[in-house]
Structure formats: structure tokens, C-alpha cells
Design a protein that fits this description.
The protein has two domains: about 35 residues; about 260 residues, 3-Layer(aba) Sandwich (Rossmann fold), CATH 3.40.50. It contains eleven helices and eight strands.
Length: about 300
Amino acid sequence: MISRIYQLINIYISAMKFTLSLLVFLLPLFALCQDQMAPHYKIYNTAKNSTATVDDVINDMAGADVLFFGEEHNDSTGHYLEALIFEKLVEKYPGKAALTMEMFQTDCQTILNEYLTGLIREKNLITEGRAWKNYKDYRPMVETAKAASLPVIAANAPTRYTNLVTRAGLSELQRLDATGKSWLPPLPIDTATGRYYDKFGEIMGGHAGPMHVYQSQNLWDAAMGYSIAQFYKAHKGFKVFQVNGGFHSEEKLGTVAQLIKYAPKVRVINIQAYADESFDNPDWSKFAKLGDYIILTDPKLPKTF
């Protein structure tokens, strides 16, 4: 009887050794499966002057309300990270996370809501919701929100109104009827001066261009900032993930500045992502003023369009 017990103990020990050996072998594979894109991006915390992880960003959201992700619209790695960050935010704050997007316009909110609640098909969302041509890059975030019954906010101003401002100026918005104005932030729109105006001039080749063009940029920013602010005020305790083109949130100008005007107490973290040629050996100091976190992605990877 005793010998039988010892035999069983030896079998158990051998089985445990085999299991541990198998785990040692498989753990690197599990890690690889979890984040196969890890070799293709680097994250830097500009306040701490140190490298960081996605989990570091998520942990920092304990002290913030809105997380901006300033992307390059054709950066496949950036889109991957957006989906990963939002997924982790949803896991960290179940039932208390929301997605706001430049990629949908305010007059399409009803269509977006109908899709999220399962009333309409995805093809109707794409066509009638005027989804961007690379919607497949943003789809994982929308599907994460849908699966968790979380809100997605169509944050951007309707293109026809930004085009109107580009052609004729902000004052033309006053001619809209009540329905048209309901899709915009309160009029008149504040046009930022100072650093943002100068920065806009830099990307326009050293001058800000026609004032109407700059005014349409401000409408764009104000619409997104107001959309976020309205949600933030109505949903205390939510963590909001805003996705937009990088210029809209660099240096916490543009949309970030407009958001703070509408909601002065809001706490913001901004990520700025770039597919940069310095990826292999980055000089982080040249990016330091642009965001709380800087993400560099491998420029050699294929673009999404």
C-alpha cells in the first residue's frame, strides 16, 4: 500500500515537472500571440522621459477623463494600437468606457446608434453613416463597443458645413435652420489664435492661407470638442477614448483646447502617434512637447491606403 502511494506521488511529481516545462516553453508563445505587433511600435512617456507600455497608459487613465489618440490616418500599426488601447480601457472600466471619433459626423449619430443596438446592418452603417473608405481600420473599436453595449459618439461636424465655412466663412453658419445648427457646437465658433494659428500656418507652407480655411479647421475642432464635452458632462465617471488626426490634438491644441473651453474641469491625456523614419533610433526630445505619450511606429510596414 505504501509503495503504491509513493508510486502515485512520483507520477504526480513527474506530471507537475512536465507541466512546468511545457509552460516555460509556451509562455513566450502566449506573449507573442498577445501582441505580435510589439516589435513594430515604441511608446514614450514624455513626463517621465522613459519608455512605456500600453498598460502604463491605461493605468494613467485613473487620473484622467479623456484619452486622445492623434493618429496618422493610414498608419496600420497606429490603428492596431487604437483597437488594443480601447479594448484594454473597456476591460479596466467595464460599462464605463466610451468611444468618440472624428470618423463619424454628428448628423449620423442616429444611424450609428441603430447599428450599435442591432437594428440595422453594417452595410447600412457604412453607406448611410458615410463611413470613411478605410472603415475596416476603425471597425474593431466599433465592434468592441457594440459587443459591450457601450456608446460610440459621432463627433465630427458634417462635411457640408466645414465646406461651407471654407468657401464663405463662419458667419454663413448662422443661416442654417434649427436642425442644421443642432449638429454643430453653439455659434459663433471661437477661432483660436496664438500658437495654434502659427502651427496651422506652418503646415500650410509658412502662412495660414485664406482665413476661411483656418475657420473651417476651428469648426472641425470645436465640433469634436463640444461632442466630447457634452458626453463627458452627461456621463460622470466614464473614460472617453477620442480618435482623431494628429494635428487636432498635438500640443493639446485644436480639439483638446476646444474641449477644455466647453468643459474646463476635464482631465486629458494625449497620445500622438507617428510612423517615423527615426523608429530604429528615435530622438524622443524632438517629440516631447507634442503629447503626454509619443508612439513611434515602423514606417516600413504597409500603409492601410
